Amino acid sequence: MLVGRRLLIVAVVLATIASIYVLVERTGASAVASAIRPNWLLLAIGFAIIASVQPLRAWAWSSTVRSPVGFRAMYVSSAIGSFLDTVLPGRLGEASKLAVLKVAAGKEYPGFSRAGGSLLCAHLLEMTAFAVLGAAAALFLPVPGWARVTLLVGLTAPAAGLVLLAVVHRRFGTRLPRGLDRFLAGANAPSPILARAAAILFVTWVARWFGVLFLLHAVGLHVSIGAALLYMVVTGLANTAPILPGNAGLYQGAAIGALALIGQSGAHAVAASLLTPVVVSLATATAALVGLAFYGSRFIELPRAALTFRP
To answer: pTM for the complete prediction?
Structure first.
């Protein structure tokens, strides 16, 4: 099994390198030059905004977990998992959040079922907040038809999921195995908590929107605020299918397509598609390192827990 896992990792890495190589080969060296010589001030602002989102995401998850777990543990777990999501395929970083939380929280760990249910609740709320922002954008931006349908599904499905989880827990919770009941209890947060967490997560998407705006301007794409929102919506939808690390290839195609909708193409557009996911990964890595710094001598324990995926 270990050999198979290593072969899979090698295959994924090679596929990622190949996809990026083909992209660069077809667009020429000018795109790479634009990516490696951006406006550093604007890039730094965008980087800082994206990194600042991590405490807000941790705050939202901390709200839904409804357990006396310190914010430090919630933050480092959320930040490490978010970083791994940007470099591993298949959203494996989500599983690592629970594994890291177990080590970081210690005696305050609410248990896998409770933590997992609350994390699911936070993600459904995050999807809903994204869909609300995207649906608003679709009213006045040239969003593709497939994106409009996806946003509509994305708006109704997470909300329906939250309602379904609440109904199942209230009607059948006592008849279910204890672990499953605790999982549903973690996902079934009271309405005031859901509203607060949803508001926090909506703010995170607004912050990312402006982070994207600064990153696009940093590579010479002087687009409007609305165009930056379109870029974030289309690439955000593409990120729902994370096949390769960092969603390499698919993200770049979605980014270039989104920019083409607003009349932006050429080397600067390709530079944005290459640079943006790298900056996001570095910003989340920085946020994770800040969280790890609070644990001093236990610095190594948390990444080790994340990579073992044992919640």
So the answer is: 0.82
